[in-house]
Structures are given as structure tokens and as C-alpha cells.
User: Fold this.
Amino acid sequence: MLGSQAARLTPGRRPRDNEGVARFVIDSGATLHLAGAGATVSAEHELLVPPPWLCETTLAALHEEVRRGELAADVARERIARINALQIRLLGDAVLRRRAWGLAFELGLDTTYPAEHVALAQLQKGTLVSTDAQLLERVRDIVPTATVGVVG
Assistant:
């Protein structure tokens, strides 16, 4: 299971198993949630993201929270360290970009950011994990989806 302390995956659809390892494509919202919960990743899970969006969006989101006074700077730095410890595998190539480009139009998306996550989930036979319920609903017939939930 994902998370030793307070985070777990709550599947919207059953994750696919790839050689005994469940692959989860996570967006920045899911990454920030896992880092905030102090989650760790078990050997049975692999976290995947399309670069460079994870680094840019998670750092930007943490910075914005600090600037608005919603998060202390030292807590944000700790979360960055936790994100680094999650051992997230960054993937991206021409096939991914081409597929994301097509999905963005197919799904009527304003940007390619979410389409890259969907494309990666398709290409890697993974489950899309997001805190964006609307996105998960929109793509549930295209890729397996899951939400990040907090446990006691």
C-alpha cells in the first residue's frame, strides 16, 4: 500500500498490475498530498510523472502557499525533501508528447498538462492518481483512475 503514515490510494477503478508492481501516474496535487501526509512508497508501487511538470508545478504550488501565509517556509522545505524521498520516476519522450497532444484536443482540455498524465497512464498501463475529481471523472473511461485519501 502507498503510505506508511496517513495516505493511501482509494481506487476509482482497479489499478492494473504490471509484473507485480502497480504503476501510478501522479499529478502535482497528488504529489503535494502525499508529501504533506508523510507518505512513503512500498516496493509494490511505482510512481510515474511526465517531466518537467512535476518539479515546476509542485515547487510553484508550495511557494504560493508560503507567500499567501498558508504554509511555513520550513514546512515547505520539509515537503520538498519528502517529495524527493518518494522516488518518483520521471518519464517523457516524443511518443508521450505526441499522445498528450492528441488527448488534449480529444478531451477538449485548455492545456496539455493533464493530457500528459493521461497519456503516461495509457502508455505505461498505469492508474492516474489526482486530487482533481473533475479530471478523474472526465478520463475514467480512458484510463484507470484513483484518488488520494487520508486515513485517520
Observations:
- The beta strands are 7-11, 17-18, 21-26, 45-49, 89-90, 127-130, 145-150.
- The chain has one domain: 7-146.
- The CA atoms of residues 11 and 146 lie 4 Å apart.
- Residues 7-146 form a domain with the Rossmann fold fold (CATH 3.40.50.1010).
